[in-house]
């Protein structure tokens, strides 16, 4: 009888922990339903981040990773050399990031697309050689602000950055 009572209490506790209200269940099912068989759902959950991202399997490689970098306190998404993004929790405004980019001692920056949430720019050497493109995005949810940036050591074509922009729209902050 004692074993039965323990099992009954355990079952009730597990059921109450797993129950959800209808709105949460609908939200979860709608997120799940948009993931096609040709996509990969990447999830990063720890004490600092609770993120999901959907990417096409066709762009994934054996080296692809979505991880928390404890030494830097940010998240890293590496898909391949032309798709490498860092995600950090920070209150930095895009205007501050733009000023920082403009004050670079080596490169000048040509900002081709700008909004309140995104910067798309090209880096130019002092001799006028155009060498690559960059992108920064600010995501804001109630009580949380994140900055998405390309790996500064990477070399990105205009097409690389446009592809990254497109796929990063699937990033969800949970």
Could you please describe the fold and organization of this structure?
With 174 residues, this protein is an alpha+beta fold. It is 28% helix and 39% strand. The strands form 2 sheets. The chain has a 7-stranded antiparallel β-sheet. The N and C termini lie far apart (43 Å).
In CATH, what is the class of the largest domain?
Alpha Beta
User: Count the helices. How many?
Assistant: 4
Number of strands: 10
Q: Any guess at the CATH architecture of the largest domain?
A: 3-Layer(aba) Sandwich
Instruction: Give the biggest sheet.
Output: 7 strands, antiparallel
Radius of gyration: 21 Å
Helix/strand class: alpha+beta
Q: In order across it, which strands form the biggest sheet?
A: 3-4-5-9-8-7-6
